[in-house]
Design a protein that fits this description.
The complex is a heterodimer of chains A (about 850) and B (about 350). Chain A has 29 helices and 1 strand. In chain A, helix 6 runs antiparallel to helix 7. The radius of gyration of chain A is 53 Å and the shape is flat. Chain B has about 350 residues and is mainly β. Helix content of chain B is about 0%, strand content about 55%. Chain B is built from no helices and 28 strands. In chain B, the strands form 7 sheets. Chain B has a 4-stranded antiparallel beta sheet, with no helix packed on it. Chain B is globular, with a radius of gyration of 19 Å. Chain B starts with a strand and ends with a strand. The chains are: A mainly alpha (about 850), B mainly beta (about 350).
Chain lengths: ~850, ~350
């Protein structure tokens, strides 16, 4: 095997390196690597083999793949650094690696060897076939020589005839020309008759030179005269046609083209005749230029083609004037149409002004607003996407400008148009929002208040409330959500349409129906045109401006409405009147709907444009923040409601507690007092109302995220009012004073005391979230608080105490599921009981639990 | 519990308690009378003196306890004799009023006299707020105001019943809760809370001087106090959580309303006697508020209010607050929560 290996090596290098007996193992290895192209560099054969000149890197000595690998070093390294199991592992890994390498080496050598045998066979075969081929080639050579001789003979015999043919074909050509000339007048005549004046002129120009050359030949002269006569006739004909042309004659493109041709011919014919030329120019301008100013670019091109001169500068001012006219008209139309852009929900208001029967005063203002909005809807419906012809007209103006003055001018005009548009939209946004806000305000007013109701309200709360109630009911019947949603949708539609249109008019590319103006191709495709890019950039800018304005207006109006709603909260709150409290509830309901629906609409609009980060930058519409503001108002209103409801129910309790002679009861309680039964019923009813209010309100609306939970969440803690039972303190405690430290500072190392105070039950906490149970819990706390405050002012005998125990048990059993937090629920009741025990003048007189439960 | 801005002295009582008042006769110390409220145990009257032992730090320098058998619902200290005070207490079925004298030798209270002219429960007793030593008092129950002349002899032992000068019947069913004697000469006007209404009564004629209907939205008016520096002004606090400032001359509407301070019934409202822009309020929401009023211009009624400080340290309802009576340090006040 080693011999075949070395002979292979030699054949690759070109200069055989004979294996010397003294060649060491390293050398063999290097040669082998070189053969497989693995060696970093091939040692040249003449040089001495590179010895270990440089001291090898210690890492190389132990690296298996290194040239300087040294077994002793490797082993000692291995023995010193590795433990026995690892050593065994390494050993087995190495053995398997070696076995693998061995078999790989064998495979390589074997395949090399068999390749070599194959190659030798092939060379042998080739040698034998080569001798065969050389015989065949010499035979072929002879044959070709024969053919070449034959060819020479043929060529010489043909040469004589060929010259004859050439001369004859020349004669034929000349004859043809003559014949064509002969026919010229007829063909020209034919062209004129069938109004192919251009073709006629082409023939004439073609034939004229030949005819002039052979003018002396009589027959030719005759032809010439005939032709000249036809041309003269044509000239008169065209002159008359062109000069007598009326502007109205040309309507189709074909006709315009034909006319242009006529002009071209007649101008050619009248060449040199300055007077005629001037007349023609005038005529051309008269017919084409002024009437078709929107085709100015076309005109210029034709003019150049006919008269061969550039008249762009001359006509630019005229064009500008015309363009201004078009633009002014265009803008006027757009302005009108945009104004009708408000909303397109005709039936929107049918839900609001469904109270046809009511003729209350003071509705006139609200009605006026409704009518105004209704009109806007209508105009919008009729007027949206005005006028495609006008748009097209403007587009043509741009196109022509493009041809006449190139893109810079177009860009300039577009920009000015765009700025104009933005201004309109900008102003319009104000208008829209003013109208919307006033509409929304009136909707709110209609439900809760209208100035003329005030007298009503003061004199007779019920009536005032019933009025509002009926309005709310009417709206509810038609589905409040739907109405508000519709307002929102129209709002969204309005804006997207306005912008869609806005873009549509700024760019010549019409937008698809559902196409986002922002992804319109005009913005996306850059034709490497600086002016166009500028237009795009500016339209971007303008859009951003308008959008910004929109955002600002949205925010402002949302806040304004929010504030407005707050003012209702203030007028309604704290009356302690049941009807007014229900108004508060309605108000919150409206608010919740307003916030959850409206904000999602606004959010929707913003989100649509959100992807365009360039626009979003610098615009601060924080939907979340706005939503939070509204949410906060809702919370505030609901908190007011909760308080008011709590106080109201407290008052009912007050009457009942004070009406009873707690200290004069004569027998053990047998049943729950009627008053408590009706309290429980009241509470259930309020709970039902509150639950109803939240029907259909999205879950995510019920939380206000930051901070609120902290401030309200402490009601989970154990109530301390309960644990600090009275009478347990020893007299010795009486004089103990805690010096110098207010309670607020107990937090510093208070320990047990700290815990004790942290568990303070928050009775008047804020709402942690908007859901019926949380609200009911807060009402519950206020009611029971009032209850035990009232109890604390009573003195009762043991039957009074027992009665109260029975009743609190009854409350516990019936209302438990109405309140979200059971520990709060029970602790409040416990406080009620302990207050009662404290006010009982007969000690140890409470009933046993099992007695109460029976 | 006593507070002065950020530092406070805290004093615990063995029982629940409802009333705390400054000892009016002692103008050199901040001394308060506190009565406990326990139905079944022997109650106590604490006479607590507070001093500012170092700037900003208060301490209780004295806490004398007197035994008062019945639970104390109200205390009316005599404005000129610090050993005398009325209490209104729960006698079992009725609330009665009695005049007590502190016994200097032990913890007993000597009953000087008991007002026996009332048929219903006595709500409060008022001393005529004149500067002198007028022994004229008023007592109030649900149906009438009774005007007496006391004749207190210095000897101990039971006294004869005071002479009834006049009696005013309200002729109205609304429950009364509290009353205040107008602190300006001729000391002839008293304001009384009747449910949600406030009425002024003239002691000489026995007639109504003014009436504010629905001074508070609902419930009861639980606190009244006169501004001792501005003759016609008084303040009221009620179950609608509001505190309202009124002028007797224009009773149609309040000139200021503090509606943001409390979440539950307002039980106590007190003008500072010396600095009438400072007002304390407390309520059953366990909160004590210190307000400052700013009169915009003399003679005008416009007032700006400012919540100086909100003390939410109490665990329980705070039924009374009281300014200290020390002329030299009039900024000390006390608040008392139900848990003592």
């Amino acid at each position: 095997m080693s011999s075949s290996n070395s002979s292979l090596n030699g054949s690759v290098d070109g200069s055989p390196v004979l294996p010397s007996p003294s060649v060491d193992r390293d050398n063999k290895k290097r040669n082998l690597l070189a053969f497989y192209g693995l060696a970093p560099q091939q040692p040249s054969p003449g040089q001495p083999l590179p010895g270990p000149v440089a001291p090898p890197n210690p890492a190389d000595l132990v690296s298996l793949d290194s040239v300087h690998f040294s077994l002793p070093n490797y082993l000692s390294e291995l023995y010193t650094t590795t433990n026995l199991p690892n050593l065994l592992n390494t050993s087995s890994a190495l053995s398997s690696e070696i076995a693998g390498l061995d078999s790989h080496l064998q495979t390589l050598i074997y395949s090399n060897y068999s390749s070599f045998l194959h190659a030798t066979d092939t060379v042998r075969t080739m040698q034998s076939s080569l001798s065969l081929i050389s015989d065949n080639i010499s035979h072929l050579n002879n044959k070709i020589q024969e053919m070449s001789n034959l060819n020479d003979t043929i060529y010489t015999s043909l040469q004589k005839n060929k010259n004859e043919i050439v001369s004859k074909s020349e004669v034929v050509e000349r004859m043809k020309k003559k014949l064509w000339l002969w026919d010229l007048p007829g063909r020209m005549k034919k062209c004129v008759d069938s109004e192919y004046y251009g073709e006629c002129m082409r023939l004439w120009n073609k034939g004229r030179k030949v005819l002039k050359r052979y003018e002396t030949v009589k027959s030719v002269q005759k032809i010439l005269e005939e032709c000249q006569k036809i041309v003269a006739e044509l000239e008169t004909l065209l002159w008359n046609r062109v000069i007598n042309q009326k502007e109205e004659d040309k309507t189709s493109v074909d006709e315009i083209n034909r006319n242009t041709e006529w002009f071209k011919i007649i101008v050619k014919l009248k060449q040199g005749n300055e007077e005629a030329e001037a007349t023609l120019k005038k005529q051309f301008e008269r017919i084409f230029g002024k009437r078709n100013l929107e085709n100015w670019g076309d005109f210029c091109v034709r003019y150049e083609r006919i008269f061969g001169e550039n008249n762009r500068e001359k006509t630019a001012s005229e064009l500008k004037k015309y363009q201004d006219e078009v633009l002014t008209e265009y803008y006027a139309r757009i302005r009108d149409n945009l104004k009708t852009f408000i909303m397109s929900e005709n039936d929107l208001l049918s839900g609001v002004d469904g109270n046809e029967g009511s003729n209350q005063e003071g509705e006139s203002a609200a009605d006026a607003s409704k009518i105004k909005i209704r009109e806007m809807f209508k105009r919008l419906e009729e007027g949206y996407v005005v006028d495609k012809t006008l748009t097209a007209k403007l587009a043509r103006v741009y196109e022509d400008l493009d041809r006449v003055n190139k893109t810079t001018e177009v860009a300039r005009v577009k920009i000015s148009a765009m700025e104009f548009m933005s201004r309109i939209v900008y102003d319009l946004i104000d208008e829209i929002f003013r109208e919307l806000v006033s509409y929304w305000k009136r909707s709110i007013e209609d439900i809760f208040w209208s100035p003329s109701d005030e007298a009503n309200h003061n004199n007779n709360n019920n009536e005032g409330h019933m009025l509002r109630r009926s309005r709310m009911d009417e709206i509810s019947k038609k589905n409040v959500y739907a109405v508000v949603n519709k307002v929102g949708n129209s709002f969204e539609k309005t804006l997207s349409q306005a912008f869609g249109y806005f873009f549509n008019t700024i760019d010549d590319t019409p937008l698809g129906e559902d196409e986002n103006p922002y992804t319109s191709p005009i913005l996306k495709t850059d034709k490497n045109n600086k002016a166009q890019s500028n237009v795009r950039a500016l339209s971007f800018l303008n859009y951003s401006l308008v959008f910004n304005k929109l955002v600002v207006c949205t925010q402002a109006s949302v806040l304004e409405l929010n504030e407005y709603v707050c003012s209702f909260k203030d007028t309604i709150q704290w009356d302690g009147n049941e009807m007014k409290i229900n108004d508060l509830m309605l108000l919150s309901k409206f608010l919740i709907i307003f916030a959850s629906e409206k904000m999602s609409v606004i959010a929707g609009i913003v989100v649509k444009i959100k992807d365009e980060s360039e626009i979003r930058d610098g615009i601060e519409l924080n939907v979340v923040e706005l939503n939070d503001r509204i949410k906060k108002t809702v919370f505030a209103v609901m908190e007011t409601y909760t308080k008011a409801q709590g106080v109201l129910m407290g008052r009912i309790i007050e009457k009942r507690v004070e009406a009873r002679q707690w200290s004069k009861l004569k027998k053990e309680p047998r049943k729950v007092g009627k008053s408590i039964v009706s309290f429980v019923e009241d509470f259930k009813e309020v709970s039902a109302v509150v639950t109803y209010m939240f029907l259909g309100i999205p879950k995510e609306f019920m939380f206000l995220d930051e901070g609120r939970k902290d401030s309200a969440g402490s009601d989970i803690g154990a109530g301390s009012e309960i644990s600090s039972g009275r009478g347990n303190k020893s007299g010795a405690l009486a004089t103990t004073s805690t010096r110098g430290k207010p309670r607020a500072k107990f937090g510093v190392g208070g320990g047990v005391v700290d815990d004790f105070f942290n568990k303070k039950l928050v009775i008047f906490g804020r709402l942690s979230q908007l859901d019926p149970k949380t609200i009911m819990t807060n009402i519950w706390k206020i009611v029971v608080k009032t209850f035990y405050e009232l109890i604390r002012m009573q003195t009762m005998n043991k039957y009074g105490l027992q009665q109260l125990q029975v009743e609190s048990q009854y409350i516990m059993q019936t209302l438990r599921d109405k309140v979200v937090n059971e520990s709060v629920f029970e602790k409040m009741l416990e406080e009620l009981r302990s207050s009662a025990v404290g006010r009982c003048n007969e000690p140890e007189s409470g009933l046993e639990m099992n007695v109460i439960q029976n | 519990k006593m507070y002065e801005e950020t530092t406070a002295a805290v004093c615990g009582l063995p029982f629940q308690a409802r009333c705390i008042v400054p000892e009016l006769a002692d103008t050199e110390h901040n001394r308060f009378l506190v009565g406990t409220l326990s139905l079944r145990e022997e109650n106590e009257i604490h006479s607590i003196a507070i001093e500012e032992i170092s700037p900003g730090e208060l301490d209780i320098v004295e806490d004398t306890v007197f035994v008062h058998k019945r639970e104390v619902w109200n205390i009316s200290p005599c404005p000129f004799d610090s050993s005398l005070f009325f209490t209104c207490y729960n006698e079992g079925t009725q609330y009665v009023a009695a005049l007590w004298r502190k016994n200097e030798n032990n913890t007993d209270l000597d009953q000087v006299l008991e007002l026996e002219s009332h048929r219903g429960s006595v709500k409060c007793v008022l001393w005529q707020p004149s500067a002198g030593t007028s022994e004229t008092i008023l007592s109030m129950d649900d149906t009438s105001l009774i005007h007496y002349d006391l004749n207190i002899s210095s000897e101990s032992g039971s006294q004869t019943q005071p002479k009834v000068k006049s009696k005013i019947d309200y002729k109205e069913g609304e429950q009364t809760t509290t009353a205040k004697w107008r602190p300006q000469p001729p000391y002839s006007e008293v304001i009384v809370s009747h449910g949600t209404n406030i009425k002024g009564w003239d002691l000489r004629s026995g007639k109504e001087t003014f009436q504010i209907n629905r001074a508070h939205q609902h419930g009861k008016i639980r606190a009244l106090d006169f501004n001792s520096n501005k003759p016609n002004q008084f303040v009221s606090g009620g179950d609608d959580c509001n505190i309202k400032f009124w002028d007797i001359k224009k009773p149609s509407d309040p000139f200021a309303v503090l509606d943001s301070g409390h979440n539950h019934w307002v039980w106590g409202v007190e003008f500072n006697k010396y600095h009438d822009q400072l007002v304390l309020s407390s309520g059953s929401d366990s909160i004590v508020n210190l307000w400052r009023l700013e009169w915009e211009e003399a003679g005008k009624r416009g007032v700006r209010s400012q919540l100086l400080r909100r003390y939410d340290d109490h665990e329980h309802s705070v039924y009374r607050v009281a300014w200290g009576n020390n002329e030299l340090n009039p900024y000390i006040f006390a608040s008392l929560s139900f848990d003592g």
